[in-house]
Amino acid sequence: MTQVQASFHQPLPRFEYIETYRITAPGPSTDIFDPPKGWEPRRAQLFAQEFWRYRNSNAFGSNLNCWLPAVEFHSFRLTREADVVRAAALYLLHPVHLALQALPLPRLICQSEQVHGATARSDISWKYKDRQNQWRTLAVLEFKATGMLVKQEFLEAATNSQRSSKELVDSAYVLRQRKDNSWFGDGARPLTQQMIKYSERAEVDLVAIFDWKSMFVLDFGSRDEGRYQLAKGTWFAEDDGNTARPETFRSVLFGMLIEALRRNGVIL
Question: Distance between CA atoms of 120 and 30, rounded to whole angstroms?
Answer without folding.
Answer: 8
